[in-house]
């Protein structure tokens, strides 16, 4: 690869890493082209970019970002998945793919400057999506108000039932 292309690639990755929420590093050794394309398609559906990159270029691109701590894990064939939005979606895809594939191995991940172990990535993958968590939170916020409205509505309802029972008793 020409030096100009390498410089351009380093600048491109540095810009992506500067704005990324999470990055996942994997060893793809043993996967064929169809399997890599299948994984890339799943990750693209989750809004994640998956690229194979030279370790030295990735080290240079990560300098000065939260992902500089990846340097120790950049050995052997390396692929990186960069999540700009939700870090849970790529964790789910990669953990599932690593479980199903005997060749694909998730090395590590970085979430907001913190290295995650393989177990932590699996725990992250088991979290519900952001939308589900927001829905649960809104339901929790809304629950006391709706319970209070139910209690307030019970008083007039009980009064109407008592009056109806008195009317039925006098009619009989």
Automatic annotation (TrEMBL):
PROSITE patterns in UniProt: RIBOSOMAL_L10
Keyword Ribosomal protein: yes
GO cellular component: large ribosomal subunit
Keyword annotations from UniProtKB, A to Z: Ribonucleoprotein, Ribosomal protein, RNA-binding, rRNA-binding
Biological role: Forms part of the ribosomal stalk, playing a central role in the interaction of the ribosome with GTP-bound translation factors.
Alphabetized NCBIfam families for the sequence: PRK00099.1-1
Name of protein: Large ribosomal subunit protein uL10
Originating organism: Desulfuromonas acetoxidans (strain DSM 684 / 11070)
Source organism phylogeny: Bacteria, Pseudomonadati, Thermodesulfobacteriota, Desulfuromonadia, Desulfuromonadales
